[in-house]
Amino acid sequence: MAEANWYVVHTYSGYENKVKANIEKTIENRHLQEEILEVRVPLEDVQETRNGDKKTVTKKMLPGYVLIKMVMNDDTWYVVRNTRGVTGFVGPGSKPVPLTEEEMRPFEGHTSKVKVDFGVGDTVVAISGAWQDSVGIVQRMDDSKQSVRVAFEMFGRETPVEIAYSDVRKM
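User: That's the sequence. What structure does it adopt?
Assistant: Structure tokens below.
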């Protein structure tokens, strides 16, 4: 038996969960459990801050896409490709390209991110930590670290400080 790999399937926007359910139903009806092993809509927790209120919201990491771990053959390709809501596999032409282990890493767990309502040049206030209640201007944002560099004024001089997104809010 061939090796199962992860593939990316493009769907109509908003149909990701419906496509997942349809493929899972087809797997059960056609007894393809040995060939199509898993169907996944990757999700992440995003902490949104609006007007100082923190809210955790679960969002799709890849809107319009579904991940499928399957053994690629004519049967499985046909089943997935002809599922209602699927527009095709990701890859050149009609040939699906499997994801590498490295490409799959970000989708392994349920991740958590903070989404903020401020940007570079905005005035913010620190809401916790050593700089609490200090007002400064955002100089740089780093989404990968989920942090922001804020220029606070201290003793008449600008002092750049790196702070987590969750520790500041827009004024």
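The helical segments are 16-30, 74-81, 101-104.
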